[in-house]
Design a protein that fits this description.
The protein has one domain: Alpha-Beta Complex (Spore Coat Polysaccharide Biosynthesis Protein SpsA, Chain A), CATH 3.90.550.10. Helix content is 39%, strand content 19%. Strands 3-2-1-4-6-5-7 form a 7-stranded mixed sheet, sandwiched between helices.
């Protein structure tokens, strides 16, 4: 089962949960992560799907994903020819989701059934559920400093009063048809929250522990990615402040 950058309308969503899983060079973790997430989703809700986006991976991620989708009708495989960043992966998954609620789930920290139930219980048609991490496992000293500075700066510039803007979010799926996203990298998560707030959506925060990555290297840990994130944050603030952003 393979699709390349398909487009989907925002109508006709069915009650249920779409799990949005961006994957970039995750050949070591993808199969086990999908199996864990699939089992958790089956336990947490009656109707669900796993929308996995191979974000221009250079390894066997795409091949593995196609095999998983062929073997399980609950798994849908989407592919980017080139890497678009975590935001690009989530956007493609969200635009092609078929259930009325959509939750982000990273490959390196699969959500449990208990966590999924907590997010679903807190959700609503005008509410975004924002998960916060009590601890950031696997972070080195400089990563803690960088993430802390980014969080405080983003919340200040964008007017967000949240404990953690860069983790698990559950959205009403129709939101993906209401926003035009300009940034595909890590700033994507802050951009969605800032623009959704302007549309009248409210936020509910719940605790959502993370797992330490067992294999591979997280893209967000690379210095180049971190510097690009701060630059994109500044550009986002400027566009929102000057009214040059696209809704």
């Amino acid at each position: 089962m393979q699709a390349t950058d398909p487009q989907s309308g925002g109508n006709g969503l069915r009650p249920g949960l779409s799990v949005l899983i961006p994957a970039f060079n995750e050949e070591e973790l993808l199969a086990s992560a999908v199996a864990q997430i699939r089992a958790a989703a089956a336990e947490a809700c009656d109707d669900f799907e796993l929308v996995v986006v191979n974000d221009g991976s250079a390894d066997r991620t795409g091949e593995i994903l196609d095999g998983l989708a062929t073997a399980d009708e609950h798994v849908r495989a989407l592919h980017h020819e080139q890497n678009r960043g975590i935001g690009g992966g989530i956007t493609t998954a969200g635009q092609n989701a078929r259930c009325d609620r959509a939750i982000i789930c990273p490959v390196d920290s699969p959500l449990s059934a208990e966590q999924l139930r907590a997010f679903l219980a807190a959700s609503g048609p005008e509410t975004i559920v924002v998960g916060y991490r009590p601890r950031r496992l696997g972070y080195r000293g400089w990563q803690h400093v960088g993430s802390g500075v980014y969080h405080r700066l983003a919340c200040t510039l964008l007017g967000l009063r949240l404990r953690d803007i860069n983790w698990i979010h559950l959205y009403p799926t129709r939101l993906f048809g209401e926003l035009q996203i300009e940034f595909g990298g890590i700033v994507y998560l802050a951009e969605v929250l800032a623009k959704a707030r302007r549309l009248g959506y409210g936020f509910v925060e719940i605790e959502s522990p993370m797992a330490a990555r067992l294999k591979g290297v997280a893209t967000i840990s690379k210095p180049r990615t971190i510097w690009r994130t701060f630059w994109d944050l500044w550009r986002l603030w400027w566009r929102l402040t000057t009214g040059r952003d696209r809704r």
